[in-house]
Design goal:
mainly alpha; about 300 residues; single chain; DNA polymerase, domain 1; about 50% helix; two-stranded antiparallel sheet
């Protein structure tokens, strides 16, 4: 398919075919959607740009035009998604030289970020406001994510058989595709398939909650599920307790943050969250790691000053 292109063809047409050849069927749908969104922007910003005209200047202009509407990190993602196709076009002789070399990434000033996680005191207040009765409800899901750090789609896919009550373990090996409504789906990556230790209180609570439920049926699924529904419930609890309003994904950040502040190693946190590498964990929680490093410096100085 790509061999039929020549340098007079449109860049967006080459990129569209490149996605079909290299990405279709090889990546998860959410990632594929990002490539398709990049394609849509490419058509919008450079509809008449031909492969032979993709130079460092025209490519930089494309990035600059995109950056007018997006923050720097989003522009960087746009650049990375285009770069693979561009380099292949260079290898195929359709573009003379690598136009992505020394590309400058710009972007709009980032918006003020919402609070992403709660501290330990705020989390205690949130959990105290949950309605944890004998029947399954969304408050139980909030508790489960807060205490395990699971992704929302992973928590939705949990069945009674995933709990190993005798060993206080929970197996995470699937997700629930609530967006496309197609049922069970694969985890984000291989590292996301994991077993995590859970506390004895959660074991007792969920052993009672799931006692009479079908072992292979998701605990929380009863009809269509919407992320906004859970976020609204979580928001109400936060407002009730006068704490920062976070999203359901913020519960995952809260879980990780509390572990890091408690002194749990980055490697252990990465494994518990199902990150593909410790680098992902370090990037996501860089602000916390820096705060801990500052705290470590104080400890080192106090220890050294005591050596008289």
């Amino acid at each position: 398919m790509l061999s039929s292109f020549n340098s007079l063809d449109f860049f967006w047409a080459y990129y569209e075919t490149w996605i079909k050849v290299y990405k279709e069927g090889a990546i998860r749908k959410p990632t594929m959607d990002k490539y398709l969104l990049t394609l849509a922007w490419l058509k919008k910003l450079a509809p008449n740009l031909k492969l032979k005209d993709v130079t460092r200047i025209t490519y930089q202009k494309l990035l600059n035009d995109y950056a007018m509407y997006h923050e720097r990190q989003t522009t960087l993602d746009f650049h990375h998604q285009l770069k693979g196709a561009v380099l292949d076009a260079v290898d195929d002789g359709l573009i003379d030289r690598d136009p992505t070399r020394k590309a400058i990434i710009k972007g709009k000033i980032p918006r003020v970020k919402k609070t992403k996680y709660l501290n330990q005191f705020e989390l205690h207040k949130l959990l105290s406001d949950l309605d944890l009765g004998p029947e399954v409800n969304w408050d139980w899901l909030i508790l489960l994510i807060a205490k395990t750090g699971m992704r929302f789609s992973e928590a939705l896919a949990v069945t009674p058989s995933d709990f190993d009550f005798s060993h206080q373990m929970l197996t995470i090996n699937k997700t629930w595709d609530y967006k496309s409504k197609t049922g069970f789906a694969q985890t984000k990556n291989k590292s996301s398939m994991r077993k995590i230790q859970i506390d004895w209180q959660l074991i007792i609570q969920f052993s009672e909650l799931t006692r009479n439920l079908p072992p292979e049926v998701p605990i929380f699924i009863n009809g269509n599920v919407y992320n906004s529904t859970i976020n609204d419930i979580l928001s109400r609890h936060c407002k009730n307790m006068d704490i920062p309003v976070i999203s359901v994904h913020g519960l995952r950040h809260t879980h990780a943050s509390l572990l890091l502040f408690a002194g749990v190693s980055i490697a252990s946190v990465a494994q518990r969250l199902g990150h593909s590498s410790m680098t992902t964990t370090q990037k996501t929680y860089l602000h916390i790691i820096r705060e801990l490093e500052n705290r470590d410096v104080d400890l080192v100085m106090r220890s050294l000053s005591s050596l008289n």
